[in-house]
Amino acid sequence: MSSRQVRRIRRTTCWTAALALTLGLTACSSDDDPEPTAPRTTAAATPQAGEEVELTFGVWGSDDEIAAFESTVAQFNALSDESNVRIVAFPDREALVAAMRTGARETPDVYMLDRADLVWTHDEGLNIPIGELLDERGVEFGDRYSRSALEAFALDRALQCMPYGISPTVMYYNTDLVDFDRMAELGLDVPSGSRTKWTFAQFAEAAAFTSRKRQGTKGVHVPPTLDGLAPFIYSGGPMFNDETDPTSLSLDDEGSREALSLALRVLRDPTQTLSDEQLAERPALEWFKAGKLAMIPGDRSLVPELRRVRGLDFDVIQMPVIESAATVGDITGLCVSSEARSVPEAADFVVHALSTESVREVTRAGYLAPANQEVALTDDFLQPGRQPEHASAFNTSVRALRIPPLLDVWGELEKAVDPILSELFTVPVVDDIGDYTSRIDEASRPVLDSEYEAPTESPSESPTE
What is the pLDDT of residues 337-386, one digit of tens each? Predict the structure, then answer.
């Protein structure tokens, strides 16, 4: 019996405490328990004895990222006598999902998935829960994965995909413009200590300090969207009326409304933010690269791009705190297709791709913020001596990450409320922000509440003859 066959024998084991507590699952299985339902597979999923299984691995990313994935795959293929993995690369997440949705390509045997696409993938039956597959292979989560990361891919009381990347939104800033030492000399309120976190008041000071008409610089740009404003809203109150099964946004909650009102004092100030004319000329990121915009929110994927800009000195810091530390971010996982040519071999590859050495290989390219916290604390991720100096802000921001409810209507939700948010940024005077937050919440209800009924208008009286 091969070592790989030995690993596949189902053992009586306990899920790790982190996963069991997170998902509320029965922690142990025994020989008396009923056997789990076999995963759905295609006719090609059972290879002939001695036949090498050809597997595909669907990923997206830059050339450097794909090259790192290729290295991981090559190492696996060199060790495996039973399967051979081939990369199927896409330029971005949208391209991979579009190929799966339209059937332009068959679903890869193993594929990277953004959490935003989990509900659709699950409902279409395109993945099989991965938790037990990893448990059978002795994979221990322990302290290597945060509770937030595991919860992100929990659905139907099961771990659907294994967290791979967790990239919180932080604030990027130009260190030539946001000169904390100079600000301190002038008696302005600046972050203390390691300067990886700050208050909203300190953020507002930096936005005002860096907005200089004669130099043509502006302090900050945050897009007027639900996703862009989420870190500020979450810092003061809830975003949804229920974090599991929402029927409405909750921006009219007192804490959320006050947080949004405070944020808008800076984010809609025309002296401190980019104008519509400037944004029409070029995107905010290009203004930041040109040294004319001091601050912009973003995730880890921006780092390699900004490093390539000659003369740009930048760093990162956590999103500003209004009441409590909060941010949002991108979370990706590795999933096993329900139609994999061989589910056991696909699971074996996932175990290899999740190994510390494999994750470190991909992390070195600079784009990935690994969900594996063991790797996140190494120099492979922190990359001392390179920008940003305070890369540890990504790690501390993970602890403040707010995981929104799993929704398959996020696009429709944004379409419904973003025009009102955009109006908040452009009207000359906001007399009562409550008028806007109540409109936003109401606009979200038809999207989120399946039982919502629009209020009926009383019939108008018939005109007299």
Answer: 999 999 999 999 999 999 999 999 999 999 999 999 999 999 999 999 99
Q: Residue 252: what pLDDT?
A: 97
This model's pTM is above 0.70: yes
Distance between CA atoms of 19 and 13, rounded to whole angstroms? 13
- Quickly count helices (H) and strands (E) in the chain: 21, 12
User: At 9, which amino acid appears?
Assistant: I
Tokens (6 digits) for 80: 């495996």
pLDDT at 147: 85
Element of type H or E holding 382: helix 379-382
**C-alpha angle 458/464/465, rounded to 5°?**
150
Measured CA to CA, the distance from residue 177 to residue 89 in angstroms comes to 38
pLDDT for res 17: 39
Strands 110-114 vs 154-155: parallel, antiparallel or unpaired: unpaired
What is d(CA 385, CA 152) in angstroms, rounded to the nearest whole number? 32
Structure tokens of 64?
């450097």
Amino acid at 147: R
Beta strands of 37-161 (E only): which ranges? 53-60, 83-90, 110-114, 127-128, 154-155, 158-159
What is the per-residue pLDDT across 65-101, written as a single tens digit (0 to 9) for each? 999 999 999 999 999 999 999 999 999 999 999 999 8
Contact status, residue 291 vs residue 174, Cβ threshold 8 Å: yes
Task: Name the pLDDT band for 457 (thresholds 50, 70, 90).
Answer: low
Rg of the Cα trace of the chain?
25
Collapse the DSSP code of 99 into the 3-class scheme (helix H, G, I; strand E, B; otherwise coil) and give the result.
helix
Phi-psi region of 284 (alpha: psi -120 to 50; beta: other; left: phi over 0): alpha
Q: Rounded distance, CA 23 to CA 159, Å? A: 8
Report the pLDDT averaged over residues 245-274. Answer: 97
The DSSP-derived string for 411-448 is HHHHHHHHHHHHHHHHSS--S-HHHHHHHHHHHHHHHH
CB neighbour class for 410 (10 Å; exposed up to 12, middle 13-18, buried from 19): middle
CA atoms 326, 289, 115, 368: torsion sign: negative
Residues 6+ apart with CB under 8 A from 48: none
3-class secondary-structure state, position 375: helix
Q: Once rounded to an integer, what is the mean pLDDT over residues 149-158?
A: 92
- As a three-state string, the secondary structure of 209-269 is HHCECCCCEEEECCCCCHHHHHHHHHHHCCCECCCCCCCCECCCCHHHHHHHHHHHHHHCC
